[in-house]
Amino acid sequence: MKTVCRQKLMAAACGGAVLTLVSHVARADQGGVPFWSSGQFPSLAAVPESPGWSVAALPYYYNGSAGGGKSFNIGGTVSAGLSTRLPQLLVQPGYATEQRILGGQPYVGISFGIGRNNDDVNSSIALATRGAQASRSDAITGGTDLYPFGSLSWNKDSHNWMTYLTGDIPTGAYNSQRLANIGIGHAAIDAGAGYTYLNEKTGHEFSVVMGLTYNLKNTSVNYRSGIDAHVDWAVSQFLSERWHVGIVGYAYRQLTADTYPTSGLAGALRAQALGDFKSKVYAVGPEVGCLFTVGGQQAYLNLRGYKEFGAQNRTEGYALFATVSIPIGSAKK
Question: How many domains are contained in the chain?
């Protein structure tokens, strides 16, 4: 087997940190909507970026549902039998400097995009009037929130480490009374760390990224989602200097309860239907990655899919990702 070329990998390693393009769909926390989209970090997640400008694109599709026995607080209703479908495209321009910080490679970027969210519920009860509706559907096409991102990455031989900080600036399409939304309606902060083992001789690769999300209150509905913990992981094998295949997965678990108004008849109904509304889900699926050349520079393509299981207080389904990361300029000293 050919030796995996680290220079090529670093030139395309914006396929690591830049994979943090954040996407959202009605799947957890308030109304089933999380800040963190699990599956963002596949293989090579912690490999340092090549200095210079880069841009990454992330086409994404999610399809999931929750049975009629699970209630969600969406807008001014408590709804059951939720199903959702979300195609989305996000873009993240970013820059990695030549200058090191604490010996690590710094990277900063910001992601944004557009999507269409299609939501359906089998039944809903208006909290204000307690009026019941047999079924309800809604769809919205619009822009996402803004997601700034920064990281530091280190390398020594086969070992790579990184730390990151990201968050949500709630600028996307959101209305608290709508069933379907693109934005989440509140700010959030997420921080974590990752590790990648990459053996250049054997082509063995393993990556894991762990993080925590702190959600600020959605003031339009006085609802605050709890603190979330998440893990993305990948195991792959390089078949050549360009191609690798593997298995990816994620685990997502809410650590603290959601908080929301519980006074009056509407609050009592919400509390009875939701409880602490802690969510969790797990997923696993296949992955394939490829290094290729664009304008004489190394780029990276990653395709992966996830099948969810063990969901609680969120929908369960499948997610498909396609990440294309392209360097567009070198850093100048």
Answer: 1
